[in-house]
Design goal:
alpha+beta, twelve-stranded mixed β-sheet, eleven-stranded mixed β-sheet, 15 helices, about 20% helix, about 30% strand
């Protein structure tokens, strides 16, 4: 059975052009999939679906990682399930590889429908999760799905972004390029040689999968031509902590226990202990975290990078994207980005009709070498409102400069101003940490003198103000107890229609109807449920956040008890974003303690005094300080009050599944 997407560019009738394209694809030894005569003998601009999906070669290979992660005296092998066009193999024609390395193929599933790998009675792979195989195999690609060590059919142990995890996928890239060994079974000695591939590899994946793509690229492995990390981690410390403040009530050992295969769980207790001991809940930076920091190795990246991230992703927060992007930019890595207003969501589910052809052209260029111009297109696609997108030639856009904004006292205690002039020495604001409250509570009562936060607000803007990039907030504070967690959030005060990132689908609704993307079989149809934007009407939008443990102000590696009554200075890193505060709205900076539902509270609930003269926010504004001055110099009177969030719009529960 063959299922293809409606409105395909290739009419699937038995017409002469289609038959000719299919014949040439089999006969020609070149990488072109369209008839060369159609465009003067030049390479085509797009690969075409001329290979049969139902006849594709489906096989499993076990690749030697050269690491003995489970310490059983032999190096671990990882299972790789591969699907590739049979006709290409029969004609000796080599194909590139799209790879998704994941720990989730048996425990949890991939995609919006949680698809898992399936096998027939002989252990041959039948269902390949997601659409990559259905769409790309007919177009002349192989798709390889790798089980990370300790998961599904692989040896070894899960080590949450450590050496075994990274080597799981890197070894496969090496094998595809003739630098590692693969076998036909998990314990056998029959070698398998990938003589069917060009060795060009593109890695893709959401969350943990995209994290592994980042990590492998940071090794500088040859043959990896491009990566497409979606909602991916760039430093595992920053997944679990924000400058010492715990983001979850557990650590990497809990995640490992949830994704390891049952047999691995029994043999990997020593690795589990090391994860516990190496990642103390104190928030201290340790050797374990240093090993799992890929940002420091951005200079080794040879691959191009097409990053995708939800700006309201409260699982893998955009700090991961921001610091990775900046490091890649510093080393001149070719790159592209899509930033949505959704949460932890794949672009296949928030912009499917545009995503699939864009990804197609990206892989055609970097893996097949087609000169289709995709690398010359605008660098960034930014979602402004549900399903409304803009583009930028470069990102952050030219003219983006840091503007330093400063809080000031207002006519009501706890309701301050936000401008460019420093507050006079001795000016202060106070709040008392209340772990039951969070950013939604603070923003809703921004104009009220509540005791749980200190808020600072501009007047209604006279023109739009755009922030693009990563912000920082420098705080000078004095705690009343021996511990304190701090939060700083940026808020757009004014009504808007947003993606309901706090909803169950984190900004999308899953529909009942299905559409088909590529070809299929009864066991792998290539048909997926449709989605639509889940919209919410709000009175304010928190668009960037940062947190820290004040005890780590002086040394990230060694958190220390605070001295009550002593002032401390600390800088909070706010997550990267691209947000326009419209004219008529107000921009707010809120400083508070525990951001309820998003960070864990400190051991005490301090009263915190903020030294306003020693506090500032550095924001990446398009147009810099001059743009802020223009937007606030002629600020309109009155304006839009912050209002209240709609019924049902709540912060999502803390998740623990990257």
């Amino acid at each position: 059975m063959t299922i293809r997407k409606r409105n395909s560019r290739i009419p699937w009738t038995k017409s002469l052009p289609t038959a000719l394209i299919a014949l040439l694809a089999v006969l020609l030894p070149t990488p072109a999939l369209a008839a060369p005569a159609a465009n003067g003998g030049k390479p085509p601009g797009e690969s075409r679906p001329v290979y049969s999906y139902d006849r594709a070669v489906r096989e499993s290979v076990w690749v030697d990682t050269r690491v003995d992660g489970d310490r059983d005296g032999r190096t671990d092998r990882v299972a790789v399930d591969i699907i590739r066009p049979r006709e290409a193999a029969e004609r000796g024609r080599k194909v590139p590889v799209i790879m998704d390395a994941s720990p989730y193929y048996s425990c949890c599933g991939r995609g919006n429908e949680s698809q898992k790998k399936t096998y027939d009675a002989q252990g041959r792979p039948q269902q390949f999760p997601l659409f990559y195989d259905n769409y790309f195999v007919p177009r002349g690609y192989a798709v390889a799905l790798v089980d990370l060590t300790g998961t599904n059919r692989s040896d070894g142990c899960v080590d949450i972004g450590g050496r075994s995890d990274v080597q799981s996928a890197k070894a496969v890239v090496d094998w595809l390029n003739g630098r590692a060994r693969g076998y036909s079974s998990r314990t056998g000695t029959t070698a398998v040689t990938p003589d069917w591939t060009t060795g060009a590899v593109g890695m893709i994946g959401k969350s943990y999968d995209g994290t592994i793509a980042n990590a492998v690229a940071a090794t500088g492995v040859k043959g990896l031509k491009t990566i497409v990390p979606i909602g991916a981690i760039s430093s595992w410390y920053d997944y679990y902590f924000a400058k010492g403040a715990a983001l979850y009530d557990g650590g990497p050992d809990g995640l490992a226990n949830g994704i390891e295969s049952p047999e691995a769980r029994g043999r990997c207790q020593a690795v589990q202990r090391e994860l516990v001991e190496g990642a103390p809940r104190t928030g201290d930076w340790t050797r374990l975290w240093a090993e799992r920091d890929y940002v420091k190795d951005a200079g080794k990246v040879r691959a191009s990078v097409f990053a995708v991230h939800g700006m309201q992703d409260l699982n893998v927060r955009t700090k991961h994207f921001g610091q990775w992007w900046d490091a890649l930019a510093a080393h001149g890595v070719e790159r592209k980005v899509w930033l949505s207003t959704a949460g932890h969501v794949d672009p296949f589910d928030f912009r499917r009709e545009a995503w699939v052809p864009t990804l197609h052209r990206w892989f055609d260029h970097y893996l097949l070498g087609y000169d289709n111009g995709v690398e010359r297109e605008p660098m960034a696609d930014i979602e402004r409102a549900p399903d409304q997108w803009s583009t930028d030639r470069v990102w952050p856009p030219r003219g983006t400069r840091t503007a330093v904004l400063r809080p000031g006292t207002g006519p009501v205690p706890g309701v301050g101003t936000l401008g460019t002039e420093p507050a006079p020495r001795g000016a202060t604001a106070e709040f008392t940490d209340d772990p039951k409250l969070g950013e939604a509570d603070w923003a809703t009562k921004i104009d009220e003198p509540t005791g749980s936060k200190a808020g600072f607000v501009t007047r209604p803007l006279s023109q739009d103000l755009r922030l693009s990039g990563s912000s920082t907030v420098r705080l000078t504070v004095t705690p009343s107890t021996s511990s304190a967690h701090l939060s700083a959030v940026l808020v757009d005060l004014g009504p808007a229609t947003i993606r309901n990132y706090a909803g169950r689908g984190e900004g999308i609704l899953t529909l009942a109807d299905r559409s088909c993307w590529g070809s299929g079989t009864p066991t792998d149809t290539g048909c997926f449920k449709g989605t639509a934007a889940d919209r919410a009407e709000v009175g304010h939008t928190v668009f960037s956040r940062g947190w820290a443990d004040l005890g780590h102000a002086g040394d990230l590696a060694h958190g220390r008890p605070l001295t009550p009554g002593k002032p401390y200075t600390i800088t909070l890193d706010l997550a990267a974003t691209d947000h326009i505060v419209p004219a008529g709205h107000r921009l707010a900076l809120i400083v508070a303690g525990t951001d309820g539902g998003l960070i864990e509270p400190a051991s005490t609930t301090p009263r915190v005094t903020v030294d306003l003269h020693g506090t500032s926010a550095s924001l990446p504004l398009v147009g810099g300080a001059a743009a802020f001055a223009r937007a606030t110099r002629d600020a309109v009177s009155g304006g839009v009050a912050p209002g209240s969030p709609p019924h049902g719009l709540r912060l999502p529960e803390l998740t623990h599944r990257p």
